[in-house]
Amino acid sequence: MYGDMSSRVMEVLGRFASEIEVYSIDEAFLNLEGFERRDLTAYAREIRATVRKWTGIPVSVGIGPTKTLAKVANHVAKKLPVAGGVWNLSGEFESELDALLEATPVEEVWGIGPVYRDLLRRHGITTAKALRDADDRWVQKHMTVVGLKTVWELRGISCLPLELCPPPKKGICVSRSFGRPVETLREMHEAISTYAARAAEKLREERLLAGQMVVFLRTNPFKEEPQYANSVSVKLPVPTSLTPELLSYASEVTDRIWRQGFRYKKAGVFLTEMSQASCIQPAFFDEIHRERAGRLMRTVDRINERLGSDVIRYGSMGFSERWAVKAGRRSPAYTTRWEDLPATCAR
């Protein structure tokens, strides 16, 4: 549900600017260049009202000449009741900048984590204004060019353009803690096969291929009982997103790392060495007809998407899932499943 609502909010935001960077599940940057003749504060309030009306989600909007200053403005919009969810640090409002940066602790500046916070405080730099006014050579020496860009951004010099085409993921991990300890190899095979199948689906959603697989499992370190943990990585001969192929490797690795006599609490599958599906050269000795197998995977994905997850599933995944965490506390998918819509009675 959360991912779906995030997508809806981002879709609404995309109607207000031609360039948008989706920074995270609940944050985005919009490029408002070319809107200078408009009242940007009023425009931001229109954005905020439209998102609330169309999705029911309250948002705050910060406007600034750089991404870092827009983040500062957004922080004010969230915290200051008089802001009404909108704060503008661009144009004629830049006169407020000094006082605002002076009132902003340095650790609240975008990109300043605990390590840099402690470093800056040791040198007497405790506010965003003090950081902005710091010597460039000192900043680059102690915080590298990344920190220097942050300082320039605080000065209104844009150094961080919008990432309109985010880089591909570096890895996909699917792991879960078990609802009860797993003590048999058969159940461990079912769990890891399920995780591998989920990871393969995520690969295809992102149009990616994986070149390496890591399978791991462990007992519960907080229990006073025999402990064991292990992981093994396997280099795939050809980067792939084919579920049957990944299940085969996952099964082999599970046999290698399994040790009888332990009560396992968690396991998972991690896929790395990502590459774009459109950029792979066929291998000369590859025994799999990948184009035909890819069409089959797309058909399976469409059927499962239309009729329900795992309508078509692989035998190695099993059917009981006695090891799975019970879903009693899972949030209902109000926005994507008819079955989860709340029922009302009209009289």
Describe the model.
It contains 10 helices and 8 strands. It is α+β, with helices and mostly antiparallel strands. The strands form 3 sheets. Strands 5-8-6-7 form a 4-stranded antiparallel beta sheet, covered by helices on one side. The chain has a two-stranded antiparallel sheet with strand order 1-2. Strand 3, helix 3 (67-79) and strand 4 (86-88) form a beta-alpha-beta unit. The two termini are 30 Å apart.
So what's the oligomer here?
A: single chain
Adjacency order of strands in the biggest sheet: 5-8-6-7
CATH class of the largest domain: Alpha Beta
CATH architecture of the largest domain: 2-Layer Sandwich
Q: Give the class from helix and strand content and strand pairing.
A: alpha+beta
Described by the principal axes of the CA atoms, the overall outline is globular
How large a portion of the residues is in β-strands, by DSSP E? Answer: 15-25%
How many DSSP E strands?
A: 8
| Count of helical stretches | 10
Give me the Rg, rounded. Answer: 25 Å
How many individual domains? 2
Itemize the secondary structure elements and their pairings.
Layout: H1 2-13, E1 20-24, E2 27-30, H2 40-55, E3 61-63, H3 67-79, E4 86-88, H4 97-102, H5 114-122, H6 128-132, H7 136-154, E5 171-182, H8 185-205, E6 208-219, E7 229-240, H9 243-257, E8 264-276, H10 290-307
Helix pairs in contact: 1-2, 8-9
